[in-house]
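Can anyone check this?
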Amino acid sequence: MREYECGNEKNVEVKQLTVSDQQLIAEYHLLTEENQKLVQAYMRGLIKMASRSESE
């Protein structure tokens, strides 16, 4: 993946994907569109929670 494909807007260094990372991405693409949306919502929630705990 390229930096712009990852939504990397803060010029964070993009690391090499591990085998586990690649497997996770492959399995994500096997999900139905509805389940992909659920995973995306879940991840947004995790990011939001992490952002809140960092600001405290």
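Reply from J.R.: I decoded it. The first helix runs from residue 19 to 30.
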